[in-house]
């Protein structure tokens, strides 16, 4: 029976509004994803949360935190869920595994695969699987298999899958995720490389995976066997460097680096306010040796007698004794210059290297599709790996990242700001 209460009317209204916003943003592109997001109520899967908040297009809702207050589980934002559904290109009748449960996304997946398909959702946390089972039952999706397990090993009982959607931040691709995927099947996974998480859709080709698309999204971190900690290096109160793969062997040589006078180098590259810069971050991460992230606490920085200058980008690099970070400078008229601030006894070479890569990104890759990811098993002999711009050795996988060749078309959307013609 259709619910005709005022609350149900409001829910339908909010659903339609969210869908309109996601269509406008280019997240929802297919009629099926649109129809399903218009149809399935979200509030069943977060009954403790205010109705309006459940439909905020870009907000995930934390449903469980650890003792330190970090999010362990959440109802992912409509934007992230819709985009992953689009990336996964799910057809009726498919067999789909979702890693990381909650119920909401499994309900969308059930609608996508229809009565002839099958959905399995796995979570490491009993609190989450209990909730998911309860909510899915209440919403009429009791056919979904809800499994309590560490997804490091997949869910062999219902494999092979046409699609595996990972809804938790991964640092690696364990072998089970490839083995349990049919040939040509898709794995959609928020994968962290060099500290930068991108939700990547990867197609299985034999033992390897080849990316089709990637987009910037944040997800709560993987727990269990696949958990991975970054290395943090605190330079002073409110300024920390984060190394996601290899921390520098000589980290202690950077102590006191911020006591040097900064060298500021103008890259000649720029951004427009609000322009996506995910490919800029990735370009630096794949081309600058010693790449790391820099976290700056704004309040502590402003309180410092030697505050770091420039607008925050979070991108940095180190070379033994020197540090350089990319920063923005407001040029007015919604335009930003990209410059490099460098510290240390001899920072010019590193500063110029980062600036040169910013300029190349601006010339060749700004507004472009971003890089391609190839995933190989870690044991693949070196001679069998194709050439790549960056090769990262994870525990189980070799991640190769390559950029498309520039088209050589000078007419592309490049901003050269006035001081640097
Ligand atoms: C963002 S939530 C999932 C959101 C959900 N798909 C939804 O419908 O909104 C991420 C989940 O991944 C789970 N998780 C973390 N590590 C895991 C692991 N190794 N295996 C299975 N689940 C894991 C967490 O317990 C958490 O519930």
UniProtKB/TrEMBL annotation:
Localization annotation: Cytoplasm
Main location (coarse class): cytoplasm
Listed CDD domains: AdoMet_MTases (cd02440)
The entry's keywords: Cytoplasm, Methyltransferase, S-adenosyl-L-methionine, Transferase
EC number: 2.1.1.77
Family: Belongs to the methyltransferase superfamily. L-isoaspartyl/D-aspartyl protein methyltransferase family.
Protein name: Protein-L-isoaspartate O-methyltransferase
Species for this entry: Catenulispora yoronensis
